Amino acid sequence: TEPVRSTVCLGIQPPVPTSTGDKIEVVEVFSYACPHCAHFQPYADELKSKLPANAQFVLVPAIFNAQWEPFARAFYTAQSLGLLDKTHQAVFDALHRDHLPITSIDALANFYAGHGANAGNFLSTANSFVIDAKMSHGTELVRSYGVEATPTLIVNGKDRVSANSQRGI
Q: Please, what's the b/e burial string for 82-98 (b: 16 or more CB within 10 A of its CB; e: otherwise)?
C-alpha cells in the first residue's frame, strides 16, 4: 500500500521571534539524515521559488540524536563557507540515493572537499566557537518551535506545519 500523508498545522505559543526583519519567515526544520526530508526537498525547493518578495525561506537543521549532530555541524559550516546552495541537494543525494558513508564530520569534510571546500579549513570551521553557537541557537529554535519530527515548516514563528506519514490500509 502507498503511504497516507496528512498535514497538521498547529499554532506556536508563545510565538518565536523571526530572523528575517519585515519579511515573512518560512523555516524548514530538517536533517540530512532524515529520508523524509530527502523526499521533501523538491517540494521545499518549489515552495522557496514561489514565495512572494516579502517572504524568506530559512533552513534549520534538527539534532534529535547524536547521529544527526555531524550533519547539522556540516550544514552550518557549508553555510558559513558559502557552499550551501551548491551542496544542499548533493548531501541528500549522497546519503539517500548513493548511500555514501558520510556520517562523521571527517567524512563530511572530505565530501565537501569534492565540492570546493578545503577539508582542513572545513574541519577547523566546523569545530569553531561560531559553529558551536549556531548549533546551540538552532537547537533552541527547534525546541521553541515544538518540533518533534522532520521535515516541519514554521511560518513566521507562529504556525508549525508537519506532514505525518503512516501506512495506509
A: ebeeebbebbbebbbee
